[in-house]
Amino acid sequence: MCVCNCSNTCFFLSWVQGFSNKNFGFINNQTVCYSCGNYILFLNIKTKKTTALQCQTGQVGAFAVNPNCGVLAFSDRKLNPVIYVYSFPELNKLSELKGNIQLDYSLLAFSFLGPYLASYSSFPDFVLSVWNWQENILLCSESQPGVAATSMSFNPMNWQQLCFVTESSVTIWHIERNHDEHYLIQNPVKLPDRQGSLDHHEDLFFPYSCVEEPYHGPVMPVSAIAGLVGDEAETFVPRTDIKPSLHPTAHCWTTTSDIYLGCKEGYILAIDTEKCSASIIQQKPLSVVFTMAFCNEGLYTAGIEGVLYFYHIRDLQYEMKMCTDISEPISTLIFSPDYTILLIITDQGTIYSYEPAHGGEAVKLLNAFSSYLLAADFLTLGDKYCATAMACCPSSNSVAVGTKGGQIYFIDVTKVEAPRVVHRSCLSKFPVLSLHYDQSGQFLIVRAMEGYIFVLDARPSKLFQVLGYSILEDPPVFLPEKIIPSNQFGSGFICLSPNSRWLASAAKDGVLFIYDTSTMEILAQNYCHSYEGGGIRSIIFSLDGKFILVSGESDGALVCLKWKYIQKMMHENEQVPDIEKLGQQEFNLDVEEQERAQVEAEQEVARIREKIEMEILANCYLQDVIKHECWDSMCVKGRAVKCFHIACEVENYPLKKRDEEELRTLEKVLHLRKIEAANLKVQKKVLETKSETILFKEEENTEEVMADDTASCCLVGSLSSQYGADTSILYHQLDLHSREQKVNQIVLLKDIIYKVKTAFNKEFDLVAQQKEQEIARIKERNVKIREILQQLDLQVEVWEPVFPKLAANTLIVHSLNIHILHFSQDSERQRALNDMMGGVLEVTQEDILKIDIPPPSFISKPEDEWNDQEKKIFSEYEEKVKELNEEKEKYRRTLKNELEELEASIQETTQNFDKTVCKLFEKKVNLEKVVYQEELKIVNLIYSLLLDEELDSRKAGLSHFLVKKQKEKVSYHLECLGKICNCSTISSETFVDVPANLLDELLELYKCRPSRSRTCSVSAEDYKDALTHLMKAMDELDNPEHMPNGLDPSIWESFCLARRNKFKSEQLVKWMPLILAEMKVFLQRRIDDNEKMSSKIEKIFQELTWLQEEKIKFQLNLTFQFLLKQGQVELESAEIPDYTDAIFIKKSVIEELNCNIMDQVEKKIASMVECKEFSKGIFQLEWEHKKMRMQIEDLNQKAQDIFEQLSYDLMYLFYSFENAQLHKKNMKKHQKRIKELEKCISLKEQANYELSLELKEMLVSVSERRHISQAAGELQTTKRRYQEILKKKHLRGLIEEQKKHLEILQAEAERLRSKTFPIL
């Protein structure tokens, strides 16, 4: 392949390297082909030879192969792309398919039978098209906006079925034909969800057939509830109902026209293409299935694990075995046309061959690279090996590589299989732009950013030292001797050949230009890369000038161009001396290898850090939002009051402050209601007739019911009027017909609820304040109770109520909660006081229980040794002990009585408060009932508004759906077939000059037909192929050797022409019934579709009519809320009563009768009330009599108790009067002592605070000294180890010296010994 632009130079494509694992296919049993940049590469798997086909218009896009016909198709990547079809191995262009696609084709697929090609375009068209590539005809197309496909294939057994796969769906397209017309019919396949269930598909646009609930009204679909009316209403699915389906990754057809489908979740499905249903074969998900291939023996699958599996499937049962392990992610499996070889392609660009019939391991065929190229260059040792981002030294086997960090790496490539870094030089912090050796390889010139130019010694013996550098501050000066305009676009660069005779120019458009440096004429050009792939990244000449390496920016292709001077340049090179001929020259590489691993790691860390920070920020924001909405915005915070002894709790109503918009709306509605009331009063004055008067009375009665607070609440529907709410401003429930009235009613009901809750919160605050007071009183009494318990030495837990605090105060620490231990300075005095007098100087009544009379000192002696004086002292001691014990017992009883009184007081107080809380709880229950009643009204009103909107949305959605279906409904017409005359006899007028004997012979020859005849199919292409084949067979019958003897040759030619025409007519007659049958089948399908469409349209009309009726019924049939007493039940009238035997009575008679009835009823009620009051008086007198008798008994018992306690109380009062003065004196002393102790406590607190500060500083200094000590210990250990190492090293040196000295001495001794030996 060559591209020539002048008379004496041209380009020849030498080779192309690169691999794309996306497009791959067999073109015959020995050759596979794949795309690479601007080329299609053909690899012979037997000989390993590669040939290339260049796309002249840019980079290769979509790609497909048909091994049955030996053709391939590919698209280019440009504006308005074209599909090219080539033959193999001739590589002749067969056709160009031009459509209306704007940007690119994403998929191509050949049919196994027939000349059909399917294509699918990408953004923005997304069009599926079917072509006849032989006739260059677009048969049909269908647009699918926004649908990106992943794979597509024809049914090998039936070209009229096409499998279309996306990331989340599978569609079977049927190609229906009506003679010369083709249509694409879509049949989506319902895939299971991720759990393998197939029951998650439901039609949400038509989920019911006019269902209506008796209370809530008609049931609307979710699309109407969501308010959708356009195309989205047909496909809308609520988020809660969305069950993600499986994600297809690979598919293949079976011999029974079914499909096996591999999924990302590890499932394998079997798809019935006729029913468009999926069944799960593999229930237990394995690894991700990336690719699969089918043959008669079974199914082969592979994926990310790199293992090739084989499935032998029968119905939905299978047997699985592992065939081979590649240990690399497998991306493609493909069988050869004869199904003897299975090629395995990995993500890394490696191709393996596997023979299913023989089994065994897979054999590696090709190991190509599949990533992007940075740059390429020629090695000085030859042109066999290529390196990226490098410059090769002509004088040594080294390579210089520049980096983005300003460093130069020198790599030894003496062994090309194992290169190694021998030196690294850091020149600057700026990225290296280019490296260039001089021709002798003595110097290396480095160009970096910011105008830095460095000169290095390129010899390894000099360690690549830097000789100097320069900074280009001024702009470069150009000598414009000759300006050559360029036809390239985008940023570009140039490259000079080693002999400085050729200049290569490249840019983002992907076109390579070669200029003669002496004349600046274009010698050659080649479109080796495309602008879609980023254009050309690097160019380098070989030292001999025969080859040019060109690498792409992002298409992954490396192109080697071989070019020559056919006449002039080769002749000049031969004439020059050997020293001037092409030799090793320097080359320049502008792109260096970046340290991508570190950069990618830093980017990943930064991304994760940013992600975590954003999550924290989002959580903080959510916290602030929740706190603001649920706490800060509340003008009344949520609180609760609990009973002391009962499991009863009452909560207040948390309320938000009403905003200005809400208050303005309320004011507007109240103003509107006042206007309506004034309008009603004006209407009253206008009414004059009797009927108008009656109407006026009815309206007045209605208004009075609304205005009177004492009226019945049954018609109002709530008890809010009994709790201070003004219900006169509300609309009557039977007057709420319009939307505005319902909205205003909702605003008024919300205002009533707010006022009721506010009134309750005021009562709640009073009860909460009362509880705080009660708790304070109880705490005061508990102090006295603890003192009594301490005096009685009783270990009883004191009940202490706690008032719940708000959450905002739970973390506040008060000074009262801090306990400090105080130490007394006068410890000796305090200990003596405790030992002698219990810690007090004076004895009070509270301390009487602590007093003990010390026994006499002689108590330890026996009684018979006591004298009279001692006996007298002991008797006095016993009397004192007895008196003291009696005093103690009296005081204990006094304390117990006081304790019981305090506990009884607390119990009575708390019980009374519990009763208050219970009453508040009962009121809260009633208020909850009122609130629920009002909220029920609001809910019913809101539901009515929503239902009205849903009916409107459903009507609009159905109307839109109806218009769309009416557009789809088309009429089909059957074209008339032309009549074909079937002439079975030969015209005698044509052969009038033929003798009769020859005429009979010609008649027999006229009936002759070729022995080899094909069965004609319906397809026009098959018909033409069969007819061409039969016409070739007719050539044998038209041979002159079959001509009868004596017949004129001109007559024979006319005879052969007539016979051919007759034969064509016969074939046409055979073909036309097939066409007619096909058209009838197509027509019947369209008639069935038309009937289905008509049935759908009729159902839509019926539902529209039903919706209109329901809306009228809904506007008239209002929801009325009644309040019924307990025991009353509202019954539904199942049937209308029969009024055939009813009579008419005047209204006045009925009213008079009703008045009489009411009078009698009132009299009866009055007598019943009188009887009830009399019986109530009898029961009340009996109860009072029983009460008085019980009071008499209680008074008698109390009098007896008073007499028993009288003596004890008199003695207690006498004792208290004597000790009153002593008690006051002791109180003054204790108060004085308390003040002294408080002063001492304050001084101790200050001292303790100062000591705590000193303690913190001392702890810090101790910690620092500890760390210094540890560090010093480690340093000493390190020094000691270092000294030991030095000592060992010194000892080794001494050993070596002594060893050498010993060897010298041994040698000297041997020499001396040899001298003393006698000479024999």
TrEMBL record:
Claim: Coiled coil is one of the keywords in the record: yes
Domain of life of the source: Eukaryota
Q: Can you supply a Gene Ontology BP term from the record?
A: sperm axoneme assembly
- Compartment list: Cytoplasm, Cytoskeleton, Cilium axoneme
Q: What is its main location?
A: cytoplasm
**One Pfam family this sequence matches:** WD40
Q: Which UniProt keywords apply?
A: Cell projection, Coiled coil, Cytoplasm, Cytoskeleton, Repeat, WD repeat
Q: Which InterPro entries match?
A: WD40/YVTN_repeat-like_dom_sf, WD40_repeat_dom_sf, WD40_rpt
* SUPFAM superfamilies tied to this protein: WD40 repeat-like
Coiled coil stretches, renumbered: 582-611, 761-795, 867-919, 1178-1247, 1288-1315
Can you cite an annotated GO cellular component? axoneme
- PANTHER family given in the database record: CILIA- AND FLAGELLA-ASSOCIATED PROTEIN 43, CILIA- AND FLAGELLA-ASSOCIATED PROTEIN 43-RELATED
Q: Which family does it belong to?
A: Belongs to the CFAP43 family.
Name of protein: Cilia- and flagella-associated protein 43
In which organism is this protein found?
Answer: Phasianus colchicus (Common pheasant)
